Amino acid sequence: MKFLHVVAFLLISGSGFAQTKKVELYDLVKMLVQDTSEYSMIGDWAVNSASKYPVKWETKGINMSEDLNINFYRNGTANIAINGKTFTTQNKPMAWKIMLRGPRMGFTNFTITSTSHAGLKSKTTIDSLFANKKLDYKILKDCSKNPAAGFYYYQVKMPKKVTAWIKLSWVCAGDNCTIKLDCYDEGSKNLANLNCGR
Fold first, then answer.
1. Contact 53/28 with Cβ under 8 angstroms?
2. Residue 143: is it exposed, middle or buried by C-beta count within 10 angstroms (0-12/13-18/19+)?
3. Which residue range(s) make up the domain with 29?
4. Cβ proximity of 111 and 182 under 8 Å
5. Residue 86 lies in a domain
6. N or C, fewer C-beta in 10 Å, the chain?
7. What domain count does the chain have?
């Protein structure tokens, strides 16, 4: 009986660890951007393989939205590191919010959002987030005049991945900032809000 209790404990512990395993921001983005070899060119909701991504999902399946720009979605959280550095809130790893969006057959765009933290800065660039990582990019729009709220809009190509369009934005209050990555594929990039005044 004691042996069974130990096994049960290990299984539970292992499951919890898998859901909150630390992942580099670059690596998570690369996982979610589609491979060039994928025939369908849409993302896997991972409904039947919840551990495919290092994300703790809020629900077992996808949800339908009344917003036609979202269509279907799936929300979760992840323990994300930036260049090896993690952030804590109340002595716990920061829970970054993950949202996948797209048609029922698979997601076409996604968002990764931090909570507000003093360790995050305004005018965050893709260079600072993906330092020394393999990627090619060009900046398509610069809305960085306002240090309290703004964004950079990039076209990004990672090895063996389709081209992605990434809006990297920030909102700051005092010394604390929130950063957000909205990532789109070719078919969904028209959904990006590129108004510098918003």
1. yes
2. middle
3. 21-189
4. yes
5. yes
6. N
7. 1
Q: Write the DSSP assignment of 99-152 as a string of letters.
A: EEEE-TT-B-EEEEEPPPBTTS-TT--HHHHSTT-S-EEEEEEEE-S-TTEEEE
89: left (phi over 0), alpha (psi -120 to 50) or beta: beta
d(CA 84, CA 80): 9
Give domain status of residue 143, yes or no. Answer: yes
Beta-strand pair 80-81/88-89: unpaired
β-partners of residue 100 are: 74, 110
**Spatial separation of the C-alpha atoms in residues 172 and 25, rounded to whole Å:** 20
pLDDT digits over 1-36, tens only?
A: 444 443 343 344 343 434 468 999 999 999 999 999
Give yes or no for a contact between 33 and 189, defined as CB atoms under 8 angstroms apart.
no
- Distance of alpha carbon 76 from alpha carbon 31, whole angstroms: 15
Residue at 2 is within a domain: no
pLDDT digits (tens, 9 = 90+) for 34-52: 999 876 678 999 999 878 9
Domain of 126, CATH number, reads 3.40.1000
- DSSP letter assigned to residue 128: H
pTM exceeding the 0.85 threshold for the entire prediction: yes
Is the residue at 3 inside a domain? no
From first CA to last CA, the distance across the chain in angstroms is 61
For residue 140 the two structure tokens come to 């398509």
Which residue is it, tokens 């859901």? Answer: 19
In the block, residue with structure tokens 């690369």: 30
For residues 155 and 28, what is the distance between their CA atoms, to the nearest angstrom? 17
